[in-house]
Amino acid sequence: MAVVVRRGPELLAKRGLALLDEAGELFVTLLEGLRRTWDLKTWWGEFIEQAWFIIRVTSIPLLLIAIPLGATISLQVGDVARQIGAQSSTGALVVAGMVRQIAPLASALLISGAGGSAITSDMGARRIRDELSALEVMGINPTHRLVTPRLWAAAVVSVLLCSLVILSGTAGGFYFNVIQQGVTPGAYFDGAASLLQLSDLGITLFKAFVFGLVAAAVACHMGMTCDYGPAGVGRAVTRATVATSLLVFFLNYVLETLYLVLVPPKI
């Protein structure tokens, strides 16, 4: 019996084409979900339900992460700043780091890990019960009915969570920098305002919005195309979480690079 040995370049090319094909399908899912955004009456109720669900499963874990994160950054930065005689600059570094990088990434990863996993499981369960096919038989586009509200719910909640990360992280940094390390409150907040611009907050909220859209699109796509059976749904959840994390970090690099080119940082 002849044994076919697949060559390395051919295998890589096949996997690359499969990856591009899946990326194209994901992009189509995102665009198709946004295409019927204007038809609010068909998805408004589902949007409220999904937004409330995502808030419930992510708000408490977000606080448990953001406050210690801001405190840890404050302690580390404050220790280094004290050694070089620039302890009053700790607030600027903590708040700037929370606003520019940490807040949108933390909110996106939490939405992917908590809300996105639930969305993938829900869509996968609908697929293996043939509910998606039943919607198509009734003349209802499952993407418009199910994906659109989840896209907007994840995007809106991501913006809200990003603001919550900034506030809670700044509060955690304030406690350890001002109360524990003896920096005056005026120096803490004055330093924070010295490095930030209004456009910094704008790009941060925009990134959070985009990351929320991406997380929901990946979760819905993976759930709607998963293999049949509980094992297929489980693999889809894992793939959705990993894919969202990679896409979020890649998009964060692209958006931050474009922002720094278009809007030079404040000196």
Which structural class matches the secondary elements? mainly alpha
Oligomer: single chain
User: Which residues sit in consecutive blocks of at least 5 with pLDDT less than 50?
Assistant: 1-5
Percentage of residues in DSSP E strands:
under 5%
Distance between the ends: 71 Å
**Helix fraction by DSSP (H/I, runs of at least 4):** over 70%
What is the N-to-C succession of helices and strands? HHHHHHHH
Radius of gyration: 22 Å
Explain what this protein looks like in three dimensions.
Keywords: Membrane, Transmembrane, Transmembrane helix. InterPro entries: Permease_MalE (IPR030802). Pfam families: MlaE. The chain crosses the membrane at residues 53-75, 151-176, 205-224, 236-255. One of its GO terms (cellular component) is ATP-binding cassette (ABC) transporter complex. The chain has 267 residues and is mainly alpha-helical. It has one domain (59-260). It contains eight helices and no strands. The protein has helices at residues 8-35, 44-83, 90-128, 131-137, 142-180, 185-195, 198-224, 230-262. The longest helix is centred in the first third of the chain and has 40 residues, at 44-83. It is elongated, with a radius of gyration of 22 Å. Residues 1-5 have low confidence and may be disordered.
Task: Give the topology.
Layout: H1 8-35, H2 44-83, H3 90-128, H4 131-137, H5 142-180, H6 185-195, H7 198-224, H8 230-262
